[in-house]
TrEMBL record:
GO terms for molecular function: protein histidine phosphatase activity. It comes from Alteromonas stellipolaris. GO terms for cellular component: cytoplasm. This is Phosphohistidine phosphatase SixA. Pfam families: His_Phos_1. The lineage of its organism: Bacteria, Pseudomonadati, Pseudomonadota, Gammaproteobacteria, Alteromonadales. NCBIfam families: sixA. SMART domains: PGAM. Transmembrane segments: none annotated.
Length: 170
């Protein structure tokens, strides 16, 4: 299995929501299409097969937008998140540096707790997901994300830097 690693590895799964209906006046209320639901299920199955054999993540951070909540609903059919947080900073035009700093702080604050964070799922939007991968990995390739795609980052506590392991594009 590609997701097997040492006990010290922390995996961040940066996921773009599934396909959403056409833009409208209120971007926050756009819903997933049927295709978006199927994309989210396929991405979840890939994540389970490769990185979450126990069908669990420690933390899921999601945007407050409807399509990200619906994407997490689809993911949750197969993967249980011990904790789910809606985060107002992970919106399409959010600050990747702010979100990266927040993730780093959350990871480091949990290191010596009874429940350290080993697998974190972030469900958000373009262009934030692209910029967030760059900020976490301190590389500036600005990868494009297809809908329901997932970038897998191995985060090092020692260097406080991530390494892009793979990018599932569906």
């Amino acid at each position: 299995m590609s997701g097997q690693s040492s006990n010290d590895d922390i995996f961040l799964f940066i996921m773009r929501h599934g396909e959403a209906e056409a833009p409208r006046l209120d971007d926050k209320s756009r819903q997933l299409t049927q295709v978006g639901r199927q994309q989210s299920l396929a991405a979840t199955q890939w994540l389970c097969a490769n990185y979450c054999p126990d069908n669990a993540v420690d933390l899921a951070l999601i945007s407050p937008y409807r399509r990200t909540r619906q994407t997490l609903d689809m993911v949750s059919l197969d993967i249980v998140a011990d904790k789910v947080e809606v985060n107002e900073d992970i919106i399409p035009d959010g600050s990747a540096e702010l979100v990266s700093d927040y993730l780093s702080a959350r990871i480091h604050s949990a290191v010596n707790s009874k429940q350290p964070l080993k697998r974190i799922l972030v469900v958000s939007h373009m262009p934030l997901v692209s910029y967030l991968v760059d900020a976490l990995c301190q590389s500036y390739t600005t990868s494009l994300f297809a809908t329901a795609s997932i970038a897998v980052i191995r985060y090092s506590l020692r260097t406080q830097k991530g390494t892009l392991v793979t990018h599932y594009q569906g």
